[in-house]
Automatic annotation (TrEMBL):
Belongs to the cystatin family. Phytocystatin subfamily. Gene3D superfamilies: 3.10.450.10. GO terms for molecular function: cysteine-type endopeptidase inhibitor activity. This is Cystatin domain-containing protein. It holds the Pfam family SQAPI. It comes from the Eukaryota. Residues 33-122 form the Cystatin domain. PANTHER family: PHLOEM FILAMENT PROTEIN (PTHR47116). Residues 1-27 form the signal peptide. The keyword Signal applies.
Amino acid sequence: MTRSIVPSMLIVAAAVIGLCSVAPAAAEGEMPQMGGGWEHIRDVNDPHIQELGRWAVSEHVKVANDGLRFVKVVSGREQAYYGVSYELVTEATNGAGKSAAYGAVVYELENKTRELMAFRPTN
C-alpha cells in the first residue's frame, strides 16, 4: 500500500510546487510581479541598492537613448525568488534637467548577473 501512496504524493507535491511558482501576468501599464513575498527595502541608501538603480537607468538609456541621468533610488521592495527581484522607484533627470520618478524591476542572481525586467515612468 505504501508503494501506491508514494507516487501519488509525488504527483501532488509536483502539482503544488508548479502552482506556487506561477506568477500572475501584469495588467497593461503595471510593473510585472514575480509571485509573493515582497518586502520593503529598509535602507534605500544602501550602496548596493543605489548601484542597482544607477544600473537600471543606464540599461534603459542603452535601449531608449533618451539621455536620462540617475539621481537616486527613493523607495523599493525586494523578493527572493531564485535570486532577488528588486522593484525600485528611481529619480532621474532628462537632458533639460527636469526630474521625474521611474519604476524599474531588476532581477539579480547571486553571481551579480542582472536583468532589467521593466522600466517606465511612474506617473
